[in-house]
Amino acid sequence: MGDHTATRIDARSAPALRRYVGSYVGFDLRGFPAGVHCGPPGRVLTAVISLSDPLEVAAGVDDRSPVTRFASVAGGLMCRSVAIHHDGRQQGVKVSLTPLGARAVYGMPAAALAHRLVPLDELLGALGIELVDRLRAATTWAARFAALDELLLRAVGRAAGVDRVPRVRPEVAEAWRRLVTARGRVQVGAVAAELGWSRRYLTERFRGEVGLSPKTFARVLRFEHAHELATAHDPLPWADAATVSGYADQAHLVRDWREFIGRSPTAWRRGEVLLGSG
Predict the structure, then answer these.
(1) pTM recorded for the entire structure
(2) Is pLDDT of 89 > 60?
């Protein structure tokens, strides 16, 4: 792969934000071959702020989806990977937002962003523009993460003052928690029964808040687990990864991989030049 450098800095948000923000990740990747990075679906809504050139992102991999340039981009929950076109370098900050935190930060349910990519300032307005400017002006990762805390706390405070933004139904929040805890390996009907709802009613309420049905979200969680195993420093063989993440067999994993990534596991591993970059 030649000479390349990869920096990744993980950080937690301020305590007051942790109900809504899963993590911050700063990244600086240089010297890699140009290519297309597959941003896989998962349990969180992702926002990415570029610290260099605009991001070039498409809402699908190898499907001729149009490529759009973003200084900063926010996405909802997806059922397929996004394609991030790069010239071998990327520098920016990624923010992971829980689906139940979308109302707190963006002032809208996560369902409003499902399967979409939008400029961050379209959601945060002037705060989004200020956030990009502050992150680019900062000279250390600590200063960037502090700016994220400050700006996102202001966003939460602003949303809390808007009466028209209702709270998440506690039953939906509990269903989300149980699905995430079990990494999707739980029967939706059983969760609904324990909450005192019918499966159909839970599905309607969950989709209306999160943007995916509980069954689809469970599939995404199972795929996310397999993807984590596949991107580990010492990845498991595909058959073992399938078993550990709850698939019936390797063929079942391959079918989901093609659906969610747009490529077979083998083609994905061969084409993902940023794999192992941290």
Answers:
(1) 0.90
(2) yes
